[in-house]
Write a structure and sequence with these properties.
Strand content: under 5%
Structural class: mainly alpha
Membrane topology: Single-pass membrane protein
Distance between the termini: 134 Å
Main location: mitochondrion
Keywords: Membrane, Mitochondrion, Mitochondrion inner membrane, Transmembrane, Transmembrane helix
Subcellular location: Mitochondrion inner membrane
Pfam families: LETM1_RBD (PF07766)
Number of strands: 0
Amino acid sequence: MALSLVVRTCRFSFCRFAPSKALTSYRSYGNNTPARDAHRKSVYKTEEAKRIRFYILNRFIEYLKNYDKILEKNFPTTIKTYRTFTDGIKTFSLETIEYFKIVMMLNSSGGSYAKLLRREIELYHQMPKDMMKVAPVIIFSALPFAFYVLLPLVYTLPKQLLTAHFWTPDQQNKFQIEYFRDRLVHNKPVFRHLQSQLNYIKHYGKNKTQFEKWANILGLLGSGIQPTADDILACKDLFMDEPYHLLYLSRNHVFHLLRVHNLHAGWFRRTRLADRAQVLIEMDKAILREGGVHNLPLNALSKACYIRGLNPTDISSDYQVKWLTQWIKVSSQVDKDNLSLLLHCPILLGYNEPSNWVLVYPKK
């Protein structure tokens, strides 16, 4: 009896502990055998495996570098539009920052136009208009997913919704000519207003002695000939009082004069015209400070002519220099009392220019 109990106890103990030892031994063999470690090393740490991994990584990096070229090849128009827009955003942002720096400088104690470069004065003049035009587009594009809706729209109507920052070179040339043509169509109404006051000068004007000279200038303009700067300066006193002083111009005369200078016909018309004349004078002074008309780069020379009322397309740089020199000769003799004279110079110096005339009356 006792013997059988001992035998059963031994059997129970063997069944309880033997499997655990066997499992432990098996796990130990499976985890720590040198054969398996050697196998792993041979697969993952050989030179061949390293070369394969580096080759795959390098190929992936090269693919990422050339990904824009792949997109440009498959979607050329879309990529070109996207790049133009992003480059425009960068340029517009930089010029906006520069504009506010100029504003702060001018409003600080001792700030004046004399401290600005010609390019900075041109930026100060043009940037507010550009900011007003493009602000709705930039604000709307910041909304979620709005950019993908807005981009096709703005490039369907780039002239109406964008500024020159976002235009392609071809669009810049095209739209600049169209905008300039819109300005030139107002030259003739301004010229007619000048003619309409000739009789008043003869009978009631305070400067009757200049009547003959002024009548000759208007006669030259009507005959297709441009008067010289000296001819114009001989009659500058007519613009210091009635009928050609800024305060005495008729409403319709002021409207067309605003459009000649690419200004809107809204509020504070005469004040904005006076400000425009002051800015033009400061631009001319900056040109002289920087070495004169002859030292202007070609692009700056063409832009200066465009701002002042001469179409620079298809005319030589020598002629542009000659014309701008005549303009500055008049501008240097203008002060706050006869600003109206400078405002009329696009007509007095550019009414009969062939490059202007061909835009208003194109050959059929």
